Amino acid sequence: MPHTDTIADWLVSHRLYEDNLFYYALIICFWFFIGFVFLGFEINGYSQAQNLFFNFIYYLIICACMALCPFWFKLFFSKTHTAKREQELQQALDELNEYDRAEVEAELAHTGGLAMRPIQKWAIIFLGSYFLFEVFFISAWVKDLALVWEPRWASALIEWVRENTDFLSDKERVDRKLFSVYIKPSDTELYQLYTSEREFLASSFGGATALFQVFRSFCFPLILFAFATIIWRPLDWLGGLSVDPRNIHSVGSFIFSSVATVAMTLLFLSIILYFIFLEMSAVLLFDKQHWANGFSWNFAFIFAVLSIKFICGWFVFWKNVFFNR
Questions:
Q1: Which domain holds residue 274?
Q2: Are residue 229 and residue 264 in the same domain, yes or no?
Q3: Counting C-beta atoms within 10 Å of the first and last residue's C-beta, which end of the chain has fewer, N or C?
Q4: Residue 247 near residue 253, CB atoms below 8 Å
């Protein structure tokens, strides 16, 4: 199937990859919802630390259910048109010799005619598991604005964050460290609880935020890679090819690609800042509702992937200009 140039065409397309992605995303969202609703439960008669352990076991069970996406797909969606197309395609590919099969698969992968590959399936499973971990941390590991359980390694990470955090309100002592914190009057909840950034970071809630920030920051490249693995091709089908610098054919398209690259790069930087400023992570830690309200920030990863695509496209464009004359 040829590439589409409009969103309308993309929405009504019937690429096997997109259909397959829809069902897998549906399964992941279902199990994520089950986890989101019940994580943070407490069983009477048990300590908070014991309830944390029970919640962790529940979290692992939900992750295992997410990892069984292929099983749920075969169990509930084996009669769908998508499943039948996948089976027919697999049978047709099995009849080809090794060389022809590789050539056909390469073309189908380019046009969306193949189902999701294992790495793409594991990428969407990882995203579901990671975001559910954030819910687990917020609802079960943090209670009453403090960590329920703080092992030595967690304390070491918290101290590391504290030592590598700039207090932006103290402009004379900004050392351009890895993390930053700046509590403004507009940050209503934090502003009412703490009189200064130093008081916040030294508090139990500041420690919980620091540990949460470590998890989020360390997982940032993994999240970005997972998003890229899933949506790299679909972005082309959505119309990204018309903006990609590799396809510049006129002065107008050059200007348009340049503006688009700058815009996407700025949005990419915004998502990076989201993983640097502690006060933004702190707001998410108040409860699951605050986390859900801030979840839309994660869609900026799409713009981050676009930015990377465009930057790669510029390398190809200038390479062709200077070396392929």
A1: 150-324
A2: yes
A3: C
A4: yes
